[in-house]
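Priority: medium. Attachment 1 of 2:
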């Protein structure tokens, strides 16, 4: 049996096919340029999904019939409706549609991907796996903003948090690595990729996270500013004449590392810093400092921290960022071992200094595998009206 994982965005569909028994990857790829014009463009998501299925059958990864146990879809925003993955039905589709105002760049493409997969493979169980779901365990004091209450009651303005699939995956892997039940561990997980977020996890459950109602809040990211005085956008409107849409684009697409030094790719930021560019130095300094502040805050939230986990393209590969993020935290029981931290290993590993009470782990994330596992579990838990085929 096979499980197909789809990450359908506004202009691309990424896919990965797993063998259920071994969870090995049978085939992976991406169809992009959806909705664009030009010779190699793909007309719409329907045509895009058709190309996915053609690739899977032409390569022999699936047969005829396809033998799909299920299809797992990544969905960015599930609002307050979903604490867990959900078997797709009309109500689930309505809920994903209703969350479009909260994730206008993501949910429409996610929804289109599900709709074409349902139309093309009507007999295959489909599951939506939400980036927000893992954080639905946050208590009210962590998810509310200090705004007039009716904004929550009427518009559901609150912290949701994202990257939940990645935080959940590395939390589970951390427990396996440490040989402890996930429900016994307090963790601070740091997903540092193009987007970046921190989560405080108490006994396996997310109790706080740095991203908010949207993915703009929290850590410094490739092009997003993260935490900011909420008065700044109003000041910018008055001072520059930009309208709200332009300011939103500035905070999402022109800020973060790119805003500070002109480069959003961390490898390039390091190259610039090595070449003596002071703005790149400042970007790395600010990036590490912001993470360190969250580690301190989440240590206070959790009281006891068993392990700090670094993941994502930067978290997994960037020893300098890890060093700066943990700098000066030995009072909290946190210190990296320089040699272990500098090792180029791509395996999950411990990098804390000998004898320090808080483990520091580097764990590669694997959101597709996590979606596949959650899809299989969800189908197994509620087989629904039709039997898996
Ligand atoms: P996404 O969030 O899009 O999945 P990734 O998790 O792949 O992105 O992270 C992308 C970031 O990881 C980029 O800033 C990239 O520069 C950074 N990165 C990848 N490899 C390295 C490396 N060896 N050293 C430092 N940064 C790296």
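Attachment 2 of 2:
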């Amino acid at each position: 049996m096979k499980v197909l994982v789809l990450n359908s965005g506004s202009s691309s569909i990424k896919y990965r096919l797993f063998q259920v028994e071994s969870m090995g990857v049978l085939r992976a790829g991406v169809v992009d340029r959806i909705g664009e014009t030009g010779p190699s463009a793909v007309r719409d998501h329907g045509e895009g999904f058709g190309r996915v299925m053609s690739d899977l059958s032409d390569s022999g990864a699936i047969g005829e019939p396809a033998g799909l146990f299920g299809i797992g879809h990544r969905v960015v925003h599930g609002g307050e409706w979903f604490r867990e993955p959900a078997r797709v039905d009309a109500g689930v589709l309505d809920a994903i549609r209703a969350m479009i105002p909260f994730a206008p760049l993501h949910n429409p493409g996610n929804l289109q991907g599900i709709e074409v997969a349902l139309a093309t493979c009507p007999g295959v169980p489909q599951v939506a796996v939400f980036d927000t779901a893992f954080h639905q365990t946050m208590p009210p004091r962590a998810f509310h903003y200090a705004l007039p209450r009716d904004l929550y009651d009427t518009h559901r303005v609150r912290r949701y948090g994202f990257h939940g699939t990645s935080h959940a995956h590395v939390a589970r892997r951390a427990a396996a690595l440490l040989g402890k039940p996930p429900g016994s561990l307090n963790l601070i997980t740091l997903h540092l990729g193009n987007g970046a977020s921190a989560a405080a996890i108490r006994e396996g459950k997310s109790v706080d996270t740095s991203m908010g109602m949207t993915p703009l809040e929290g850590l410094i990211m490739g092009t997003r500013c993260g935490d900011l005085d909420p008065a700044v956008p109003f000041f910018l409107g008055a001072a520059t004449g930009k309208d709200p849409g332009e300011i939103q684009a500035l905070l999402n697409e022109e800020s973060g590392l790119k805003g500070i030094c002109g480069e959003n790719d961390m490898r390039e930021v390091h190259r610039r810093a090595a070449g003596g560019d002071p703005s790149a130095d400042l970007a790395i300094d600010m990036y590490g400092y912001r993470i360190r502040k969250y580690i301190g805050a989440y240590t206070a939230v959790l009281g006891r921290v068993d392990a700090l986990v670094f993941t994502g393209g930067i978290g997994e590969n960037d020893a300098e960022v890890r060093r700066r993020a943990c700098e000066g935290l030995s009072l909290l029981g946190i210190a990296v071992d320089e040699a272990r931290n500098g090792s180029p290993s791509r395996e999950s590993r411990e990098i804390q200094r000998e004898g320090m009470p808080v483990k520091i782990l580097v764990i590669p994330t694997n959101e597709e595998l996590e979606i596949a596992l959650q899809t299989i579990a969800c189908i197994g838990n509620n087989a629904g009206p039709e039997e898996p085929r």
